[in-house]
Amino acid sequence: MAHSLVGFYGMLGDMRRLRDLIPESYVNDAALRQKGEDDHSIGLLSGDDDCPAFDRLWKYCRGYDGGSLAAACTLVDGAFDIAINWSGSIHHASSCKASGFCYVNDIVLAINEFLGSFRRVIYVDIDSHRDDSVQNAFVDS
């Protein structure tokens, strides 16, 4: 829907699509990945019904997290002034557990990328409830 709106307003010509992959070391492979045919799946980590395993889940997670990481990298490199991941802000997962319909936390990945080049990063969450997973990821810094 967002892509359609951008196209309706004639802005697609001003945008470039980026692709990247999340670093595999971010997730605990032994806990998250189950061997699949051509792909990997992420296991049911939360113990709740809000994070079920489904076909090509690993590919899905790499897609949305890769989008946020690619966006952060282009901003750090100075290639772009603005970067958007329409499927991003999957921010309730922690590095050891899926939670709240979120399997891997793309916000933490992006912030870590920024912190490699910038001393401070501000994260503003406009969701309707507190985002404890991002807070917990940086509680000691």
Your description of this structure?
The protein has 141 residues and is mainly α. It has a single domain (2-137), classed as Arginase, Chain A (3-Layer(aba) Sandwich). 34% of the residues lie in helices and 4% in strands. It contains 5 helices and 2 strands. A two-stranded antiparallel ribbon has the order 1-2. Strand 1 (33-35) and strand 2 form a beta hairpin. It starts with a helix and ends with a helix. Residues 25-44 have low confidence and may be disordered.
Can I get a quick summary?
Mean pLDDT is 77; it is low at 25-44.
Features:
141 residues; globular; HDACs
Topology as a string of helices (H) and strands (E): HHEEHHH
What top-tier CATH class fits best?
Alpha Beta
Strand ordering within the main sheet: 1-2
In CATH terms, the superfamily is Histone deacetylase domain
For the sheet with most strands, the description reads: 2 strands, antiparallel
pLDDT below 50 for ≥5 consecutive residues: which ranges? 25-44
Secondary-structure class: mainly alpha
Calculate the terminal CA-CA distance, rounded to whole Å. 37 Å
Number of domains: 1
CATH topology title:
Arginase, Chain A
Give the total of beta strands. Answer: 2
* CATH architecture identity: 3-Layer(aba) Sandwich
Estimated share of beta-strand residues: under 5%
- Helical coverage, percent range: 25-40%
Keywords: Chromatin regulator, Hydrolase
Catalytic activity: N(6)-acetyl-L-lysyl-[histone] + H2O = L-lysyl-[histone] + acetate
Domain Histone deacetylase: 26-140
GO molecular function: histone deacetylase activity, hydrolytic mechanism
